[in-house]
Amino acid sequence: QVQLVESGGGVVQPGRSLRLSCAASGFTFSSYAMHWVRQAPGKGLEWVTVISYDGSNKYYADSVNGRFSISRDNSKNTLYLQMNSLRPEDTAMYYCARGGPSIAVVGFDYWGQGTLVTVSS
Amino acid sequence: QAVVTQEPSLTVSPGGTVTLTCGSSTGAVTSRHYPYWFQQKPGQAPRTLIYDTNNKHSWTPARFSGSLLGGQAALTLSGAQPEDEAEYYCLLSYSGIRLFGGGTKLTVL
Prior knowledge:
The complex is a heterodimer of chains A (121) and B (109). With 121 residues, chain A is mainly beta. In chain A, 0% of the residues lie in helices and 46% in strands. In chain A, strands 2-10-9-4-5-6 form a six-stranded mixed β-sheet, with no helix packed on it. In chain A, a hairpin with a 4-residue loop joins strand 7 and strand 8 (78-83). The radius of gyration of chain A is 13 Å and the shape is globular. Chain B has 109 residues and is an all-beta fold. Chain B has strands spanning 4-6, 9-12, 17-24, 36-40, 47-51, 55-56, 64-69, 72-78, 86-94, 97-100, 104-108. In chain B, strands 2, 4, 5, 6, 9, 10 and 11 form a seven-stranded mixed β-sheet that branches. A four-stranded antiparallel β-sheet of chain B has the order 1-3-8-7, with no helix packed on it. The interface between A and B is medium-sized, with 22 and 26 residues.
């Protein structure tokens, strides 16, 4: 069965960096686009970024463009989110989610359980 | 940047029918926005219910259906069950950028 397990969250000071990981199993990871979605405490969902199956195409939300970077290692079945210049408003649960076989497929079907990032001094 | 709008809250009686809507500040929602619908219960990760306007996953209960209605995307729940009480989010595509609506808190009462 499809499994997505996020890790790497924690407490970090404003302006610092953090890298999240998402370990995938139960499907051919290298055949699917992958997304990150976040949810601030008590708030709604916010789409963050997507990467194509081979890493050649990426899109970012305006709120993170230039600060966050998505990448993947298909040999390790792992998705990453490098977060730089973190701000308190980046505090959220971060979910990875499986997209479609093409980055043009808009949404996602399977979700992980999330990893919590807290940006605070 | 576009804004995706949803009703903040709705209430439905057990066994009743309710329609949740999803609008776009840029104009009518069409099939080219590829609307998605998600359900999220407290303390849980979201679950995808509907994709590309009206398609269901294998785990989507038959009582949920998606459509386009009056220039908006719509999620209709027919025969509401107590376990359907949750937050519901829509997602639209804008040329590669995806945007969620603010969510609708659905109460079954």
